[in-house]
Amino acid sequence: MPTRWKVEFYEDDQDGCPVRDFLDDLGVPRRAKVLAIIRLLEEEGPTLPFPYSSQVRGKVRELRTQYQDDNLRVLYFGSPTRTFILLHAFTKRTAQTPPREIVIAERRMMRWLQHHGVQEGDA
Residue 80's pLDDT is what? Predict the structure, then answer.
């Protein structure tokens, strides 16, 4: 069996743990859908195909799932240590991912990289 990839929730003093907070606020069926896609990311790693995962911008990717009319998204990136960092989560209500959501994820990714002493080009 291939080695599973590690998944970590982004956490800091400023934002707390935003993806965990998002999950905690979801009802059970929606939370189950998001947790299932996170498990799939652990199992498949960077080979997780569309429609489960897609490129957003730069190093930022999104996990994609749906429950009824809700498009649930988790923005993440892969660190050089075979770890995916879950940066931001939201319910998508437009055809395009709102730029504001991407900027939040990019800002958190930069903070994570700086905190762990990783240069952006190394990630």
Answer: 82
